[in-house]
Amino acid sequence: MHPLWKVGRTPPVGTPFEPGGRHDAIVVGAGITGLTTAVMLARAGLDVAVVDAGGVGELATGGNTGKLSALQGTRLAVIRRHHPASLVQAYVDANLAGMEWLLEFADHAQVTYERRTDHTYAQTAAGLESVRAQHAAAREAGLPTRMLTGGELSEAFPAAGAVALDDQVTIDPMQVCVALAQEFIAAGGTLHTGIRVTATHALPDAHVTTAAGALFADHIVLATGTPITDRGLYFAKTRGLRSYCVSFRVPGDTPSATFISADDPTRSIRPVSRADGPDDGSTLVVGGNGHPVGRSDGERAAVDDLIAWTQRFFPGAEETHRWSAQDYESHNLLPFVGAMPRGLGAVRFATGYGKWGLSNAPAAALRLTAEILGAHWRDRPGWMVKIGTRLTVPADLARGATEGLKVATAATTGWMDAETRPVPVAAPAEGEGVVAHRGGRPVGISTVGGVTRAVDAVCPHLGGVLAWNDADCSWDCSLHASRFTADGTRIEGPALRDLKALPRTSDG
After folding, report:
1. What's the whole-number mean pLDDT along residues 185-205?
2. Counting Cβ atoms within 10 Å, is residue 158 exposed (0-12), middle (13-18) or buried (19+)?
3. Residue 35 pLDDT more than 70?
4. CA nearest neighbour of 367 among 351, 384, 352, 354
5. Which of 104, 165, 300, 324 is the most exposed place for a label (fewest CB within 10 A)?
6. Residues 6 or more apart from 449 whose CB is under 8 A from it?
7. What is the dihedral of CA 471, 35, 207, 369, to 10 degrees?
8. Which conformational region is residue 377 in: left (phi greater than 0), alpha (psi within -120 to 50 degrees), or beta?
């Protein structure tokens, strides 16, 4: 599973870590949120350090589809269903501000991109109601959308109708990330990759701790997808979602526009050119089949379904790359951005982009930067104030309660299922994993790269039993979306510790 966007990219690796260093601000995470925030703060003259357990654009950013759009599928309609028009307007304004900043940066850094018409389309007549609702919400928020009938769409795949928004953008997300990292370093910023932050502290002196030592700063920003602290319980106010992408070399014509379906199964279509992607011959990216982390009938089957669909409607399509990505959706459908509860004003965070990070991330960075630099609320754009003071409505609470019930069910069934299979078990086939129990404790056994391993299959965050992801060959938690490699190394999510490796013994 290797994203198309990482082809030929050599991100900066930064500088050696020196424990005990002090900076004006520390940004945890070298994805689009962390790097846009870091660049904005560095431009303002602050001494900033970025710290990431992996590398630049390692996770969600590197797995993005590269679509920069204010239309965003059916999101505006879903928000509008239970929230006032003014909040949808603020959300649209925030995304337009994020898009404007990112494109101005791209022009400055000579990162090329394509202007394209974006569509939310119905695969069947049953999906047209959602398309019309999206059109109404978008128009109410001032976006110049237009409705198209199925006859007006000459695409190869089935489409009963669509809402369209012109002048949206496709861009290579890794090229953006690399350019951000390069500008940040050139501005005097400090980049530490391969250093995992394990805790944040507001007292007695704001700092982060890592396996290599501590770093101190006046301000800490957690740009880690979901906050790596349980303050504020944001792991329970969002849900982790995984989705899949496959890039293809298509011999015939491909769409010149971008599309995402309003009805299931989700289909996201994105053409690729030399201006908005690597020059490796790939001409089309198809994504979709998303699901909550750890709750899937088969991740590999989801990828295979995308391939079969593409080859059906684009004959001769040849797969070049496949990958997946993870993002978080808040129960009230808008991002959480700002000061962390009990962080004494020193710790800030951003989460909950709902898979639309390329515009929501720079919008979040604009707000985080304004807060850190001390901009008075009267001097901030109206969208910042409106989103920052939004109220929780009954529908938000209902979504949260529903997700809480699903989490509780997953917690119970995970332990019960593990109890049905005692060790010893046969070594799983290549790329497969199984959960069994040894003395009442769930054990995860998998075979990857010809090596069979056993790990403690209980998530160190809140004790969920992990499920095997057969597409990414990872152990995923169905409670709050923490993920681990086959050998137990933490990948992402609210968990902060690796899984304990267990010896293979004669009893499993």
Report:
1. 95
2. middle
3. yes
4. 384
5. 104
6. none
7. -130
8. alpha
Q: Which of 480, 6, 405, 424 is nearest to 225 (CA)?
A: 480
3-state helix, strand, coil in the chain (%, to 5): 30, 30, 40
Which amino acid is residue 156, in one-letter code?
A
Name the CA dihedral angle for 355, 359, 362, 365, rounded to a multiple of 10 degrees. Answer: -50
Output the 3-class SS for 10-60: CCCCECCCCCCCEEEEEEECCCHHHHHHHHHHHHCCCCEEEEECCCCCCCC
- Going from N- to C-terminal start, the domains of the chain cover 4-62+175-237+333-391, 112-169+238-329, 407-502
496 exposure class (CB count in 10 Å sphere: 0-12, 13-18, 19+): middle
CATH for the stretch 112-169+238-329:
3.30.9.10
* Strand-pair category, 318-330 with 336-339: unpaired
Sorting pLDDT into bands at 50, 70 and 90, what band is 508? very low
DSSP calls for 421-450: SBSP-PPPPTT-EEEEEETTEEEEEEEETT
Check: pTM over 0.90? Answer yes or no.
Answer: yes
Q: What is the pLDDT of residue 59?
A: 93
- For 4-62+175-237+333-391, the fitting CATH number among 3.30.9.10, 3.40.50.720, 3.50.50.60, 3.90.1150.10 is 3.50.50.60
Burial class from Cβ neighbours inside 10 Å (0-12, 13-18, 19+) for residue 479 reads buried
DSSP-derived 3-state class of residue 220: strand
Name the band, by pLDDT with cuts 50, 70 and 90, for residue 392: confident
**Which CATH architecture best describes the domain 407-502?**
3-layer Sandwich (2.102)
CA triple 55-57-60, angle to 5 deg: 125
| Per-residue pLDDT tens over the stretch 448-500 | 999 999 999 999 999 999 999 999 999 999 999 999 999 999 999 999 999 99
Reported residue count of the chain is 508
Please answer whether residues 437 and 419 qualify as being in contact, where contact means their C-beta atoms are separated by less than 8 angstroms.
yes
- What residues pair up with 465 in beta bridges, in sequence order? 458
Mean per-residue pLDDT for 346-363? 97
Model pLDDT for residues 236-292, shown as the tens digit of each residue: 999 999 999 999 999 988 999 999 999 999 999 999 999 999 988 899 999 999 999
Please check whether residue 240 is in contact with residue 494, taking contact to mean a CB–CB distance below 8 angstroms.
no
Which pLDDT score is estimated for 396? 75
Please, what is the average pLDDT of the chain?
A: 94
Q: Which of 20, 134, 34, 120 is nearest to 78 (CA)?
A: 134
